[in-house]
Design goal:
The complex is a heterodimer. By secondary structure, chain A is an all-beta fold. Chain A contains no helices and 11 strands. In chain A, the strands form 2 sheets. In chain A, strands 2, 4, 5, 9, 10 and 11 form a 6-stranded mixed sheet that branches. Chain A has a 5-stranded antiparallel sheet with strand order 1-3-8-7-6, with no helix packed on it. Classes of the chains: A mainly beta, B mainly beta.
Chain lengths: 112, 115
């Protein structure tokens, strides 16, 4: 059973377009992180959300945490080729002994 | 920000030999570290949880005698792939948990190729 559903799995867009990536679960998270990973490197932490309904912004990236703390979204405005990479959400589910559960990832390609 | 290092970044070994990968948290103490395996264009697969001063907890399907984990200090965990075979070739990534911030920070990964 996949505890954390991430969608879409692949996304190819033109420079300047907007996009949204979703992470959903039936479980409640004590916290949720978003990471970006480039080929051959480890994931880099972008943001942590903790409070239901929380919204965080990082330049052109907007992160939302659902009111019930079961889902989250990442919205990128005016995507640039430098945004290309694998985006991963990971949540600490309250009943999962503190381990992070990862979504399957979204491979984003932004074409110039 | 927090930094986690991994060594080596790349290793090529012959089938049947053993390889040790080190994971260090450089600016915080980590009582818990995690070891992941990642295949191309896929997400991270948790292999085991490394606990300082106690035995590692392995995920279902991961052979503990093949993937030996030692967490001897609050800043160092090691993963040893014993009697490596070509199917063990993969990208191995460690992470360290900052318990205060409840966040994980990842190492840069180790590309293992078994010939």
């Amino acid at each position: 059973t996949q505890l954390l559903e991430q969608s879409p799995q692949f996304l190819s867009i033109q420079e300047g377009e907007n996009l949204t990536v979703y992470c959903n679960s039936s479980s409640v998270f004590s916290s949720l992180q978003w990471y970006r990973q480039e080929p051959g490197e480890g994931p880099v932490l972008l943001v942590t959300v903790v409070t239901g309904g929380e919204v965080k912004k990082l330049k052109r990236l907007t992160f939302q945490f659902g009111d019930a703390r079961k889902d989250s979204s990442l919205h990128i405005t005016a995507a640039q080729p430098g945004d290309t990479g694998l985006y991963l959400c990971a949540g600490v589910i309250i009943t999962n002994a503190g381990k992070s559960t990862f979504g399957d990832g979204t491979t984003l390609t932004v074409k110039p | 920000g927090a930094v986690v290092s991994q060594h080596p970044s790349r290793v090529i070994c012959k089938s049947g030999t053993s390889v040790k990968i080190e994971c260090r948290s450089l600016d915080f103490q980590a009582t818990t570290m995690f070891w992941y395996r990642q295949f191309p264009k896929q997400s991270l697969m948790l292999m085991a949880t490394s606990n300082e001063g106690s035995k590692a907890t392995y995920e279902q399907g991961v052979e503990k005698d093949k993937f030996l984990i030692n967490h001897a200090s609050l800043t160092l965990s090691t993963l040893t792939v014993t009697s490596a075979h070509p199917e063990d070739s993969s990208f191995y990534i460690c992470s360290a948990r900052n318990a205060v911030l409840n966040e994980q920070y990842f190492g840069p990964g180790t590309r293992l190729t078994v010939t």
